[in-house]
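Hi all, posting the design record for the shared folder.

TITLE: backbone redesign
STEP: 1 of 1
STRUCTURE INPUT:
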């Protein structure tokens, strides 16, 4: 089993500290990597149900459970979603594609069945709550999948065309796809390394937030990530600061998601 020192060094591109506290759960968490090449092997029976059980064990605000998930295994439907998400081949390749939903339709339905109004669902707070609920649930499922030896990768491209995705999945009003998640056995012939993250001084603030003090950590990370690209033969020019700046430089940089607010309105979210 990979030890703590090796995993910490991989996660940061250097050893930030040498922890004497460790367990199997931390090994699973720090071993995470995005997998974009899968074997065609089907998942064992009840794997999906276990992942959903793990997802439902995540925290949920006020126990409202404002999320759902659509499990997609049909090749034709995966093909449709792959094209809508930017023609990402691993969606077609993975045996299981999970689409995580912010779901306010269930609460609306329950309230109406009991004769209650549901004005609160029209406000931004409930939209944020549902998005957070879906995210917490998905991350629990991801950790569970990786603990079982499966690989995963999140697909934010599912928000490229949210109304079309809603049509493919037959989503009711007040439900939208937050992101997708490929799940399957990693292809051992395609090596996938742990990508270094920002040093902790860039993200960990003690007592109060300090923006300017991140400069040194960001500069160090720029060097680390460039070294990672070279080591992995990824042929990527520039560093993290350059890539991140390009990703937010223009409306076009958002890759079609600049119209998300309008799409959400059309999907039944008033966002007052």
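Okay, here is what came back for every position:
SEQUENCE:
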């Amino acid at each position: 089993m990979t030890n703590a020192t090796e995993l910490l060094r991989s996660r940061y591109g250097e050893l930030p500290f040498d922890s004497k506290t460790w367990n199997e759960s931390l090994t699973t968490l720090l071993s995470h990597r995005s997998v974009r090449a899968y074997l065609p092997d089907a998942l064992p029976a009840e794997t999906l149900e276990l992942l959903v059980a793990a997802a439902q064990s995540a925290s949920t605000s006020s126990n409202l459970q404002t999320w759902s998930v659509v499990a997609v295994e049909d090749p034709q439907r995966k093909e449709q979603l792959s094209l809508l998400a930017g023609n990402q081949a691993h969606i077609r390749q993975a045996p299981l594609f999970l689409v995580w939903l912010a779901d306010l339709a269930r609460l609306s339905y329950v309230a109406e069945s009991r004769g209650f109004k549901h004005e609160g669902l029209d406000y931004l707070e409930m939209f944020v709550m549902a998005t957070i609920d879906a995210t917490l649930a998905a991350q629990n499922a991801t950790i569970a999948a990786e603990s079982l030896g499966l690989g995963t990768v999140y697909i934010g491209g599912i928000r490229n065309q949210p109304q079309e995705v809603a049509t493919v999945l037959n989503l009711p009003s007040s439900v939208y796809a937050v992101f997708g998640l490929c799940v399957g056995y990693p292809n051992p012939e395609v090596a996938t390394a742990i990508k270094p993250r920002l040093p902790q001084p860039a993200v960990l603030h003690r007592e109060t937030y300090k923006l300017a003090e991140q400069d040194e950590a960001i500069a160090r990370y720029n060097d680390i990530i460039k070294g990672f690209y070279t080591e992995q033969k990824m042929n990527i020019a520039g560093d993290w600061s350059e890539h991140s700046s390009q990703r937010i430089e223009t409306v076009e940089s958002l890759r079609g998601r600049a119209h998300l607010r309008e799409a959400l309105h059309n999907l039944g979210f008033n966002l007052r």
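COMMENT: Residues 33-192 form a domain with the NADH Oxidase fold (CATH 3.40.109.10).
Let me know if anyone wants the other runs.
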